[in-house]
Amino acid sequence: MPKKWSGDGAFQLPAKQVEPYRLWFEFLKLAHVDPEIDVDYEHYKEWGSIWEMPFNEWWGSGRWRELFAADLGVRVVQHGEIVETDANSIVVRIPLKKEPRETLKDVSQLLEEHGAGAALAISASGKFALSEGYERAFLKYLDRANMMLRLYRIWLDHAEGDKRGRISGTALDFYRWAKGRDDWIRERGYRYTRPMFPAAVRFYAEEIMAGKDTSQSRNRRQFMRYLQKARNLATNAASGVFPGKY
User: Fold this and answer.
1) What is the dihedral of CA 225, 132, 239, 31, to 10 degrees?
2) What is 30-52 written as a DSSP string?
């Protein structure tokens, strides 16, 4: 599924791309396995049993229409199709044998009677929408959110270690992954997106490898801020809000 794909013509994703919803899905799944986070499973009942399901399979099943999409377009209703309406839509039957100009007048009058255009300032959204106030910055820095998602996943993989060992292990594993993938892409000249690899994270891992890991390290503190933001995103997702304040 292309990241910039925004819908199928009849239904549109308010974010105009798939990636923020994939991140929501992935952070929620990680929150599910984090013993320090309580997931509001009742809130996500409509998402189905996602815990062992890959995103593409779940998304491709059509859940995106039910959960995230807004019905924004005019379309032909197929014979026998049941169409649900709400305060933002009406269903109109248009005869094809009538003069088009007369039909347009009739439709225009119907729209006026139902207050069309009165709520244009309100963005259409589905049942589950990205949180207002934070989504713009989130959408601008999706590469950073992806980086934090991987950090958080690695952090959970190191759950058995003590705090110091868990922190250093997470930093080293991320360093090895990011450097390895970046080298692989550059050496082969591929056009894949290179992983976001913040300087502080790289320098902190190098400090660990050089035996200079201290709690006073500025790079370590920045690394911990990235990790905390990742855990905040998971906590927000668990509570039913995404991205929320993180």
Assistant:
1) -50
2) HHHH-TT----TTTTGGG-S-TT
